[in-house]
Amino acid sequence: MSLHDHRPIALVMALRKQGITDARVLSAVERCPREMFVEEPFAHSAYDNTALPIACGQTISQPFVVAYATQALEIGPNMRILEIGTGSGYQAAVLSPLCRRVYTIERHRPLLREAEARFKALKLDNIVTKHGDGLKGWPEQAPFDRILLSAAVEEVPDTLTEQLKPGGILVAPVGPATNSGVESFSQLLTKMIRTETGLKREALIPVVFVPMMSGVPQEPRKLHESSDDKD
Ligand code: SAH
Fold first, then answer.
1. Domain segments of the chain: what residues?
2. Pocket, ligand 1, Cβ cutoff 6 A
3. Are strands 144-149 and 80-84 parallel, antiparallel or unpaired?
4. DSSP assignments along 67-85, one per residue
5. What CATH topology corresponds to 7-207?
6. How many whole angstroms from 227 Cα to the centroid of ligand 1?
7. pLDDT tens digits for 182-200?
8. Gap between the Cα atoms of 104 and 116, Å rounded
């Protein structure tokens, strides 16, 4: 993104019109070079307010939905946030300047490797990554102040709400998975607040996310594979 690239500002103006009011969130979006997170053929569309295809049949989320979910999380500067579904890494990169640490989990190793390279290039040192099934959460690092699901679930599993601090907020697209194209809204972005007695739940806006899948995809075995990942 060159200094004379006005596309991030135009994007932020569009987000304002759509009701994103949190100045810190708008600034985080404005400063995040989305062209680094999209595939080369889509570089010209990097600042369009749309989702775009990425590797492994996944998508980089629409900037509006990223901004909306980020705003709904009500993030404070000292918070530790868990994101499930790193994908391109764009959502994690937007969260990064707003909090103390982002923990992000992805089940497709090639996507995770690319996202890690982007975090390194952008010096986003407070993002830590994990390859694995995010439906299990990250028990070693729990509890979290905030949890964001970047893929759709039919229902939020207890395993995840249990990894939320009391008073903590979880935001997730809840509803059936879709493969019917982006015109049909099939999930409701849902906010859950962990209270002393249980969970308070609020439906926010209709959204379309790729489905959360359990387990990790089979990978071809290499001869001298390092065993850094135990799961
Ligand atoms: N936040 C991403 C959105 C990527 S789409 C971005 O800004 O680009 C959702 C991602 O969730 C996909 O990459 C998909 O592989 C991943 N995903 C789906 N189920 C998962 C699971 N159980 N654990 C971890 N990642 C998962």
1. 7-207
2. 58-61, 84-85, 87-88, 90-91, 105-108, 111, 133-135, 150-151, 210, 212-214
3. parallel
4. HHHHHHT---TT-EEEEE-
5. Rossmann fold (3.40.50)
6. 23
7. 445 689 999 999 999 999 9
8. 10
